[in-house]
Amino acid sequence: MEYFSEEAAMGGHPRVKIVVDAMGGDFAPANEVKGAIEALRESNNAFGVILVGREELIRKHMADQKVQDLSLSVIHADDVITMEDSPTAAVKQKKGSSLAVGITIHKEGKADAFVSAGNTGAVLSAATLILGRIKGVSRPTIGAFFPSETGVCLLLDAGTNVDCRPQHLYEFAVMGSIYARKIFKYENAAVGLLNVGEEETKGNEIVKETFKLLKASSLNFHGNVEGRDILKGKVQVVVCDGFVGNAILKFGESVPSFLKAKLTAYAEKSFVQKSLLGLVRGALRDVLKEMDYEEYGGVPVLGVNGVTIIGHGKSTPKAIKNMILKAAEVADTHLNRHIEEALAGGGSQRVLANDTITLPAHP
Amino acid sequence: MEYFSEEAAMGGHPRVKIVVDAMGGDFAPANEVKGAIEALRESNNAFGVILVGREELIRKHMADQKVQDLSLSVIHADDVITMEDSPTAAVKQKKGSSLAVGITIHKEGKADAFVSAGNTGAVLSAATLILGRIKGVSRPTIGAFFPSETGVCLLLDAGTNVDCRPQHLYEFAVMGSIYARKIFKYENAAVGLLNVGEEETKGNEIVKETFKLLKASSLNFHGNVEGRDILKGKVQVVVCDGFVGNAILKFGESVPSFLKAKLTAYAEKSFVQKSLLGLVRGALRDVLKEMDYEEYGGVPVLGVNGVTIIGHGKSTPKAIKNMILKAAEVADTHLNRHIEEALAGGGSQRVLANDTITLPAHP
User: Fold this and answer.
1) Which of A216, A228, A283, B264 has its CA 20 to 30 A from that of B327?
2) How far is the C-alpha of B175 from the C-alpha of A11, rounded, in Å?
3) Residue A193: closest CA among A182, A180, A181, A177
4) Surface-to-core class of residue A195, CB atoms within 10 Å of its CB (0-12 exposed, 13-18 middle, 19+ buried)
5) Which of A148, A254, A267 comes nearest B228 by C-beta?
6) CB contacts < 8 Å between A and B, how many?
7) Could you tell me where the DSSP H helices lie in chain B?
8) What angle (nearest 5°) sits at the alpha carbon of residue B256, between those of residues B254 and B262?
9) B279 pLDDT higher than 80
10) Helix H segments across A217-241?
């Protein structure tokens, strides 16, 4: 992988450094400490990890682990932003929180990426306020990954922007296709616009306007797609507003436990032998694992000047490990430079179907 | 079941009559004819069925079946509305279509319900234009049924109204809870408002306003629900605009084929024996059958002066049979009288959280 820098391979100081919000998740700092250690072991110290949070507590969790050989350090931060905190207010008021301190370390160039399993809204706020937006980006966005019959599908926005204008959706499409190309190696990622039907005349006014913007762009636009095309893998990037995206994401997340419950009820009323049921469950579990978005190593905040990866509050050590590995990979791809090139300046000036209009850069 | 009228049981003429659009589905009239025959056999002629469409063709499909003992008749209609036709235009132009003729028979009181597996938009248009709206209903709606861990969840709107005002969503909630009570026997059906979070402050302006309307109503309102709560069965009725509802419906419909594809790929790369894979597939098929909305016997158009049941274009004879049985059941419940009582007059005048406002009856 790209983050195994030559320097690191030669035993020198790691080039890339990842800041981890050690107080973020529901099981912090236990899972954060374990995940960081696993990431460094698996990558053979290819990068450095800085755990930010209550030092005494973090060190207590490190105490029973062998960490002397790892490129792992701790920076103290007194405060913690909880899941109950109001995102923007918390970021402004709790400047000494692990979240604010961690992102500031990244902002100051002392680290190359930031990872948190904390309050999603607060992470987005902190990333936007502290790191700032990439030139040409109206609204940073958080996407969600879905497994598909053909690979992976990136759906964005997944809940951070409930009301979107056509320009926002266009920018999501640009950022999403750059992410799909750089991280998932889809050289010419196909973009679909979520709608209630495939015909160009379908949907509400916002979607119809977005269709025109996408059609006139240089993106590999495949037109309107429907809810069924996500898992089918018709395209690699699907854009929609955060209200719709969030509903689909959460519906999808509920499928595994629904199937588990139904399978149990089915076994009880049928004559399936217990041992066979175990087999069915096992196969299903392996298949459904793909629907668990923690496997993808968290989701990136796209559109901010930096690399920020957000994970589920319930992140396991394995999920944290994957997030750190993903952050190191993203930090090495110059993703943001590509986004800025695509959107800054001419990015918001596009030819529509029948005439030329100039949309405001930051509506 | 309620549609087994005494009269029919005594061998007299069936009380309830169901009109079937024999030219509606992708496999019309073959599946429509078969489904009608199956419905009459299963119910022991408890109601009558009128097949509407190209008589010669319909009779050809009836020729090789024993139908002399069935309360089945045919009414000729020359024209057919296809899936490609523009809904409203087709209904206005093709007055001789099986759809328009069939609904008109219902409108004239010569039948008690109408069933079609044809163009959904056209069926909705025809039902609205020919039957008219129930007093107090701004917009008729079509819902979708989801199996849940606790029973069934009715989601509406499922795609017919992509832009909705709070008043529309409120009316969907009223109609949905009456349907859940009358047809699914949920005496005090819980209603949830689909949102990106449970807190009252979440979502866009339309959702926030709808929350107030629902909170002030006499419905059993359980507040905001998220995408995951549909399959979880937290409530029996979920309201959202048709854009979101359609995306979730279609996403849900794609889950079975996604799992089938993944399971096949899983078996190929693992060492699961072929016979065991068959078992896994069988169990999964039985469980997933619940996610197939045809099992519920189609979906009703709610808010029109009549009983109209719509099915999937790909409806099998079994699906058509279930739609006819459902139509007969709905025709016997006086659903619309309950909807009118709940919405006409005072239905659109409600107390909001802080003050009293009067919303227009038909915004």
Assistant:
1) A228
2) 69
3) A177
4) buried
5) A254
6) 151
7) 6-9, 30-42, 55-63, 87-93, 98-107, 120-126, 166-182, 205-216, 229-232, 242-269, 274-288, 317-331, 335-343
8) 100
9) no
10) 229-232
pLDDT tens per residue across span B332-346: 898 999 999 999 865
Quick one: closest CA in A to B278, which residue?
A: A280
Residues A245, A249, A252, A254, CA torsion sign: negative
Residue A143 has pLDDT above 90, yes or no: yes
Which residues of chain A neighbour B285 with C-beta distances below 8 Å?
none
Other CB atoms within 10 A of residue A55 CB: 15
User: Distance from A214 to chain B by nearest Cα, in Å?
Assistant: 19
| Residue of A196, A272, A279 with shortest CB distance to B243 | A196
**Phi, psi (deg, nearest 5) at residue B225:** -125, 165
Contact at CB, B149 and A266, closer than 8 angstroms: no
Query: Position A333: which residue type?
Result: T
- Amino acid (one-letter) located at A133: R
Q: Is the dihedral of CA B281, B284, B288, B294 positive or negative?
A: positive
Q: Which amino acid is at A94?
A: K
Coil, strand or helix: which one is A346? helix
Beta strands A220-225 and A190-194, pairing class: parallel
Q: What letter represents residue B237's amino acid? A: V
* Residue A29 · residue A59 · CB < 8 Å: no
How high is the mean pLDDT of chain A?
Answer: 88
> Rounded to whole angstroms, how far apart are CA atoms A323 and A329?
10
Taking only the tens place, the pLDDT of each residue in A262-311 is 877 777 776 666 666 677 777 777 777 776 656 667 899 999 999 999 99
Phi, psi at A315, each rounded to 5°: -50, 130
Q: What percent of chain B has pLDDT over 70?
A: 86
pLDDT at A271: 62
Distance from A245 to chain B by nearest Cα, in Å?
A: 9
Model pTM score: 0.89
Distance of CA A202 to the CA centre of its chain: 30
Contacts of B224 in chain A (CB under 8 A): none
Average pLDDT over residues B166-188: 96
Distance between terminal CA atoms of chain B?
39
SS3 of residue A49 by DSSP: strand
Measure the CA–CA gap between A225 and A233, rounded to whole angstroms. Answer: 11
Token pair in block for residue B100:
């328009």
Instruction: Give the H/E segment covering residue A300.
Output: strand A299-302
Average the pLDDT over each of A246-255, B32-41, B346-355 and give the range with the smallest value: B346-355
Is the peptide bond preceding residue A157 cis, with omega within 30 degrees of 0? Answer: yes
DSSP B11-31: TS--S-EEEEETT-STTTTHH
Among B24, B20, B30, which Cα is nearest to B94's? Answer: B24
User: Do the Cβ atoms of A252 and B227 come within 8 Å?
Assistant: yes
Judged by average pLDDT, the poorest of B27-31, B197-201, B290-294 is: B290-294
CB contact under 8 A, A149 and B272: no
Nearest by CB to A258, from B149, B248, B286: name it: B149
Number of Cβ within 10 Å of residue A243's Cβ equals: 26
Rounded alpha-carbon distances, angstroms, from residue B268 to A49, A231, B256, B258: 39, 20, 18, 16
Distance between CA atoms of residues A39 and A19, nearest Å: 13
Give the whole-angstrom CA distance, residue B358 versus residue B348: 7
Q: What is the DSSP string of A10-79?
A: TTS--S-EEEEETT-STTTTHHHHHHHHHHHHHTTS-SEEEEEE-HHHHHHHHHTS--TTS-EEEEE--B
pLDDT of residue A289: 76
* Both structure tokens of B325: 């049985």
Considering only CB atoms, A266 lies closest to which of B163, B230, B287, namely B287
B102-106, B146-150, B188-192, B227-231, range with the lowest pLDDT: B146-150
8 Å CB contact of B258 and A286? no
Number of Cβ within 10 Å of residue A30's Cβ equals: 16
